[in-house]
Amino acid sequence: MKYRIQKLSYFSGCLIIFMTVLNGAISIPFSNIAIAQNSQSDEAKSNQLIKAQEVTQEFFDSLIEEKFDKAMEYLSPNLKNYVSATDIQQQWRKILDNMGAFVKYRRIRALEFSRTNTVVMTANFENIISDFVVTLDDNHQITAVDFLWIGNIQTNAEEFVDALSNGQYGVARGYLAPDLKTTILPKTIEQRWLEILETTGPLKKRSNSEVIKNSSGYDVVLVNLEFEQENRSFMILFNTFSEIVGVDFPELEE
User: Radius of gyration over alpha carbons of the chain, in Å?
Assistant: First the structure.
């Protein structure tokens, strides 16, 4: 059986270092009042993380039971405006096609980073054990779900562009690396895409794509597009986990 835990191992290692520093800081003597406040704060944080963990499991329970409308209820308002129950259904079935049927949860653990709550869920599928990272806001609403499985970058690039052309900006955002999702919302992607269309005219079709060899440390896919007024290309950069870390839309030379 295959395992996909390399990225998560690195992620957890960073967490251990981070928590060691925090624990060292907390060991400094405080006044009785400060200790009481710290205990209350720790208890509140603990409750927040427990709730984030519960929401994450309920969300995945909905996916497993194929109750995609119910799964929508756990999303933040920003995502609900750009992702439909049908989109969730398509993405979940794509995962099952790659990983096989869901078997069981192996582990669900909640972490805290800054003002966001992060839950890492390890699941057993028929063909693979895979990790999922779910990010929630302070209201315990899901703002991002990252499925940590490595796909074909050429296929990922084409599907990213197809999602843009179909107005599925929430789906397109799903192909971005997690750190980009903290600042790039579906609305941001929509605005940028519409700005491009103002210059090029409507997209007529996506033509061919190709993987470009380079020495930048990133994998690059060039996707050629035919617009109403001109032909242009997307240059899409991927990290080692087949997640998009950059998109360039070169200007035409005059």
Answer: 21
